[in-house]
From TrEMBL:
Name listed for the protein in its UniProt record: MH2 domain-containing protein
CDD domains documented for this protein: MH2_SMAD_6
Residue span(s) of domain MH2: 13-179
Keywords: Transcription, Transcription regulation, Ubl conjugation
Organism field: Muntiacus reevesi (Reeves' muntjac)
GO biological process terms, semicolon-separated: anatomical structure morphogenesis; BMP signaling pathway; cell differentiation; regulation of transcription by RNA polymerase II; SMAD protein signal transduction
Entry-linked Pfam families: MH2
Entries under InterPro entries matching the protein: Dwarfin (IPR013790), SMAD-like_dom_sf (IPR017855), SMAD_dom_Dwarfin-type (IPR001132), SMAD_FHA_dom_sf (IPR008984)
Entries under SMART domains matching the protein: DWB (SM00524)
MF (Gene Ontology): I-SMAD binding; transcription regulator inhibitor activity
Stretch forming the signal peptide: none
GO cellular component, one term: heteromeric SMAD protein complex
Amino acid sequence: ASMSPDATKPSHWCSVAYWEHRTRVGRLYAVYDQAVSIFYDLPQGSGFCLGQLNLEQRSESVRRTRSKIGFGILLSKEPDGVWAYNRGEHPIFVNSPTLDAPGGRALVVRKVPPGYSIKVFDFERSGLLQHGPEPDAADGPYDPNSVRISFAKGWGPCYSRQFITSCPCWLEILLNNHR
Protein backbone atom coordinates (compact mmCIF):
# COMPACT_ATOMS: atom_id res chain seq x y z
CA ALA A 1 0.00 0.00 0.00
CA SER A 2 1.27 3.46 -0.81
CA MET A 3 1.48 6.08 1.90
CA SER A 4 0.15 9.58 1.42
CA PRO A 5 2.78 12.35 1.63
CA ASP A 6 1.18 13.65 4.84
CA ALA A 7 1.54 10.28 6.59
CA THR A 8 5.35 10.57 6.75
CA LYS A 9 5.42 14.24 7.73
CA PRO A 10 6.35 14.72 11.41
CA SER A 11 3.86 16.55 13.57
CA HIS A 12 4.71 20.00 14.90
CA TRP A 13 5.29 20.18 18.65
CA CYS A 14 4.01 23.74 19.00
CA SER A 15 2.53 26.68 17.15
CA VAL A 16 3.54 30.27 17.79
CA ALA A 17 1.17 33.24 17.52
CA TYR A 18 2.51 36.80 17.54
CA TRP A 19 0.29 39.49 19.08
CA GLU A 20 0.35 43.27 19.30
CA HIS A 21 -1.91 44.20 22.21
CA ARG A 22 -5.21 42.41 21.38
CA THR A 23 -4.49 41.83 17.68
CA ARG A 24 -2.89 38.68 16.33
CA VAL A 25 -0.49 39.59 13.55
CA GLY A 26 0.19 37.01 10.85
CA ARG A 27 -0.61 33.33 10.86
CA LEU A 28 0.28 30.64 13.36
CA TYR A 29 3.88 29.51 12.92
CA ALA A 30 4.19 25.71 13.26
CA VAL A 31 7.44 24.45 14.82
CA TYR A 32 8.75 21.04 13.69
CA ASP A 33 12.42 21.30 14.74
CA GLN A 34 13.47 20.80 18.37
CA ALA A 35 14.38 24.50 18.61
CA VAL A 36 13.29 27.69 16.91
CA SER A 37 14.66 31.23 16.95
CA ILE A 38 12.04 33.97 17.19
CA PHE A 39 13.58 37.35 16.37
CA TYR A 40 12.90 40.74 14.85
CA ASP A 41 15.17 40.99 11.81
CA LEU A 42 16.39 38.51 9.17
CA PRO A 43 20.14 38.82 9.87
CA GLN A 44 19.51 37.06 13.21
CA GLY A 45 19.35 33.67 11.42
CA SER A 46 16.60 31.30 10.38
CA GLY A 47 13.36 30.89 12.27
CA PHE A 48 10.30 33.06 12.90
CA CYS A 49 11.06 36.65 11.83
CA LEU A 50 8.62 39.05 13.49
CA GLY A 51 9.93 42.00 11.48
CA GLN A 52 8.40 40.49 8.33
CA LEU A 53 4.87 40.61 9.77
CA ASN A 54 2.94 43.61 8.50
CA LEU A 55 0.06 45.48 10.07
CA GLU A 56 -1.67 48.55 8.62
CA GLN A 57 -1.76 50.65 11.80
CA ARG A 58 0.84 50.35 14.57
CA SER A 59 0.89 52.41 17.73
CA GLU A 60 4.06 54.19 18.78
CA SER A 61 4.39 51.89 21.83
CA VAL A 62 4.32 48.84 19.52
CA ARG A 63 6.95 50.38 17.23
CA ARG A 64 9.22 51.15 20.21
CA THR A 65 8.82 47.66 21.67
CA ARG A 66 9.35 45.93 18.30
CA SER A 67 12.67 47.76 18.02
CA LYS A 68 13.72 46.12 21.33
CA ILE A 69 13.07 42.51 20.22
CA GLY A 70 16.42 42.23 18.40
CA PHE A 71 17.82 38.69 18.63
CA GLY A 72 14.64 37.67 20.49
CA ILE A 73 14.41 34.23 22.01
CA LEU A 74 15.44 30.67 21.33
CA LEU A 75 12.61 28.30 22.19
CA SER A 76 13.61 24.63 22.56
CA LYS A 77 11.84 21.39 23.35
CA GLU A 78 13.93 19.33 25.78
CA PRO A 79 13.16 15.96 27.44
CA ASP A 80 12.01 17.72 30.64
CA GLY A 81 9.99 20.52 29.04
CA VAL A 82 10.18 23.65 26.94
CA TRP A 83 12.91 26.22 27.57
CA ALA A 84 13.20 29.85 26.46
CA TYR A 85 16.59 31.54 26.19
CA ASN A 86 16.54 35.34 26.05
CA ARG A 87 18.94 36.31 23.26
CA GLY A 88 17.87 39.96 23.22
CA GLU A 89 19.19 43.02 25.02
CA HIS A 90 15.97 43.57 27.00
CA PRO A 91 14.10 41.33 29.43
CA ILE A 92 11.28 39.01 28.45
CA PHE A 93 8.35 38.18 30.72
CA VAL A 94 6.88 34.67 30.87
CA ASN A 95 3.71 33.06 32.17
CA SER A 96 2.63 29.41 31.96
CA PRO A 97 0.49 27.05 34.02
CA THR A 98 3.58 25.14 35.17
CA LEU A 99 5.24 28.29 36.59
CA ASP A 100 2.32 28.95 38.92
CA ALA A 101 2.33 27.58 42.47
CA PRO A 102 0.12 24.46 42.82
CA GLY A 103 -3.36 25.58 43.80
CA GLY A 104 -2.22 29.19 43.60
CA ARG A 105 -4.74 31.78 42.52
CA ALA A 106 -2.30 34.58 41.68
CA LEU A 107 -0.88 35.02 38.20
CA VAL A 108 2.87 34.32 38.19
CA VAL A 109 4.88 36.27 35.61
CA ARG A 110 8.65 35.69 35.60
CA LYS A 111 11.12 38.30 34.37
CA VAL A 112 14.00 36.78 32.38
CA PRO A 113 16.98 39.12 31.92
CA PRO A 114 19.06 39.15 28.71
CA GLY A 115 21.35 36.12 28.45
CA TYR A 116 19.29 33.94 30.81
CA SER A 117 16.97 31.01 30.20
CA ILE A 118 13.95 29.55 31.97
CA LYS A 119 11.98 26.33 31.73
CA VAL A 120 8.71 27.86 30.54
CA PHE A 121 6.77 24.59 30.51
CA ASP A 122 7.38 21.46 32.60
CA PHE A 123 5.95 18.29 31.02
CA GLU A 124 5.76 16.29 34.28
CA ARG A 125 4.12 19.11 36.20
CA SER A 126 1.69 19.69 33.33
CA GLY A 127 0.49 16.10 33.62
CA LEU A 128 -0.30 16.66 37.30
CA LEU A 129 -2.13 19.91 36.56
CA GLN A 130 -4.39 18.28 33.96
CA HIS A 131 -6.36 16.65 36.78
CA GLY A 132 -6.71 19.72 38.99
CA PRO A 133 -9.32 22.48 38.95
CA GLU A 134 -9.09 25.21 36.35
CA PRO A 135 -7.64 28.40 37.89
CA ASP A 136 -9.37 31.76 37.66
CA ALA A 137 -8.14 33.40 34.46
CA ALA A 138 -9.27 37.01 34.46
CA ASP A 139 -7.50 37.90 31.22
CA GLY A 140 -9.15 35.40 28.89
CA PRO A 141 -9.58 31.72 28.23
CA TYR A 142 -7.35 29.34 30.14
CA ASP A 143 -5.24 26.89 28.14
CA PRO A 144 -3.21 24.47 30.29
CA ASN A 145 -0.90 23.80 27.31
CA SER A 146 0.17 27.32 26.46
CA VAL A 147 2.91 29.76 27.35
CA ARG A 148 2.78 33.54 27.02
CA ILE A 149 5.93 35.60 26.52
CA SER A 150 6.06 39.37 26.30
CA PHE A 151 9.01 41.38 24.96
CA ALA A 152 10.43 44.19 27.15
CA LYS A 153 7.15 44.88 29.01
CA GLY A 154 5.78 42.97 32.00
CA TRP A 155 2.20 42.42 33.10
CA GLY A 156 0.29 41.10 36.07
CA PRO A 157 -0.26 42.18 39.68
CA CYS A 158 3.16 43.88 39.97
CA TYR A 159 2.80 46.01 36.81
CA SER A 160 0.58 48.77 35.49
CA ARG A 161 -0.46 46.35 32.72
CA GLN A 162 -2.72 43.83 34.42
CA PHE A 163 -3.27 41.65 31.33
CA ILE A 164 -0.93 40.43 28.60
CA THR A 165 -3.26 41.95 26.01
CA SER A 166 -2.04 45.34 27.32
CA CYS A 167 1.54 44.46 26.29
CA PRO A 168 2.67 45.91 22.94
CA CYS A 169 4.39 42.75 21.60
CA TRP A 170 3.90 39.21 22.86
CA LEU A 171 3.90 35.57 21.86
CA GLU A 172 1.48 32.77 22.57
CA ILE A 173 3.12 29.33 22.41
CA LEU A 174 0.49 26.61 21.88
CA LEU A 175 1.94 23.21 22.74
CA ASN A 176 0.62 20.18 20.86
CA ASN A 177 2.31 17.30 22.68
CA HIS A 178 -0.18 17.20 25.57
CA ARG A 179 -3.45 17.88 23.75
